[in-house]
């Protein structure tokens, strides 16, 4: 079964006038969900308890955000706004991923897509950045391990930007394999090939930087040569995807040239791995993607494969 997690509060988080990370992105995605039969759509999510947010974020940072509630469009960094509903949206975005993790552990071949805002993979332990407030996928991964659902979690981050926050959350942690494909050099500046983890986590961070202009062929090679063998070696209990759709050739923010079909191809490869290693458990979490047509088409093929690929 494929569950999609959404909540009306995600539309109320405002990033500011003209900001690419707009609520319309999620409206478009939910329209796509309405066009696919067989999805189990959850329209209301529970906020994450603060103790799970604190698996990744410092209490001082969470308390700081709680103190900002009511401020209008307070900027956490030049790109990242905190509006009156952002606190509630952020707690529920993390809560949605936790619910999705529980769902995929509840039955064989359960899969989930979290249609959430704000996105998460740039958020660091002590600060929001790059449109992100809480690191939703990192919180979900840490929850799965902390609660004893999973001994090992693999995260594949195909957003065009490097997920600095997720990398740093698990940089010394051998239980989480973090793999990122991203345009490099580019925002946020991290994610070079030689960032591979530290101490016990050495080797459990894999960065696959791509020069601008790279496309399906370069990504396919990275999957075949690096990603698929690494996940086969790691044998995760849960596979998570930081699903940004901004590496598409029509996305306005970056210069990677993926086709819509390649999002289907990547999804198929990861479903096959999840079936091989972890009873088909996949939790995909929305990150970026800023061209509305591309977002609709790419999310559609991603969901159709998650729903139907056996
Ligand atoms: Zn991105």
Concise summary:
This protein is α/β, with parallel strands linked by helices.
Keyword list:
single chain; 310 residues; alpha/beta; Arginase, Chain A; eight-stranded parallel beta sheet; two-stranded antiparallel ribbon; 9 helices; 10 strands; binds zinc ion
What does this structure look like?
This protein has 310 residues and is α/β, with parallel strands linked by helices. Helix content is 38%, strand content 15%. It contains 9 helices and 10 strands. It has helices at 23-35, 50-53, 59-68, 86-104, 136-146, 164-169, 216-234, 260-277, 292-308; strands at residues 2-5, 40-42, 74-77, 80-82, 111-114, 153-157, 176-183, 205-210, 238-243, 282-286. It has an 8-stranded parallel beta sheet with strand order 2-1-5-10-9-6-7-8, with helices on both faces. It has a two-stranded antiparallel sheet with strand order 3-4. The mean pLDDT is 97. Zinc ion binds next to loops.
**Class computed from helices, strands and strand pairing:** alpha/beta
Note poorly predicted spans. Answer: none
**Average predicted local confidence, pLDDT:** 97
Number of helices: 9
What's the architecture in CATH terms? Answer: 3-Layer(aba) Sandwich
CATH H-level homologous superfamily name: Histone deacetylase domain
How do the strands of the widest beta sheet line up side by side?
2-1-5-10-9-6-7-8
Q: Which sheet architecture does the biggest sheet show?
A: 8 strands, parallel
Strand content: 15-25%
DSSP summary, beta strand count? 10
CATH topology: Arginase, Chain A
Q: Helix fraction?
A: 25-40%
Radius of gyration: 17 Å
Order of helices and strands: EHEHHEEHEHEHEEHEHEH
CA distance, first residue to last residue: 11 Å
**What oligomeric state best describes the polypeptide chains here?**
single chain
* Number of domain units: 1
